[in-house]
Amino acid sequence: MYTAVRQAKSIQAIATALQCFFIVLKAIAYPDLFVLAEVIKEAIELSPGVGLKLVKQKNSIVFFPSDSGFRLGKTHDL
User: Which of 2, 21, 30, 62 is least enclosed, having the fewest CB within 10 Å?
Assistant: First the structure.
């Protein structure tokens, strides 16, 4: 994960790496998945201009670039 984020060439690549990481954590039933998401969300919110957004909706966590024009609709359960 560290390498993927460190070598990312765009905020989209970081969002994709984080999304994949959370999918893996869900697959292995990581017990503190939503706690980790909340901590990352807080860090993002404390970093204005970072260009990344995290949205939690029921059992879903979605990462995306904040300037992407992304609209949360149907998401895959996480």
Answer: 2
DSSP-derived secondary structure letter, 70? -
Task: Work out the end-to-end distance of the chain between its first and last CA atoms, rounded to an integer number of angstroms.
Answer: 18
In this prediction the pTM is 0.75
Phi-psi map region of 63: left, alpha, beta (phi>0 left; psi -120 to 50 alpha)? beta
- Residues with Cβ within 8 Å of 5's Cβ and at least 6 positions away in sequence, in order, are 14, 17, 18
Q: Which tens digit of pLDDT belongs to each residue from 2-30?
A: 898 889 898 889 899 999 999 999 999 99
In degrees, rounded to 5, the angle at the alpha carbon of residue 39 between the alpha carbons of residues 33 and 42 is 140
d(CA 67, CA 7): 21
39-57 pLDDT tens trace: 999 999 998 788 899 998 8
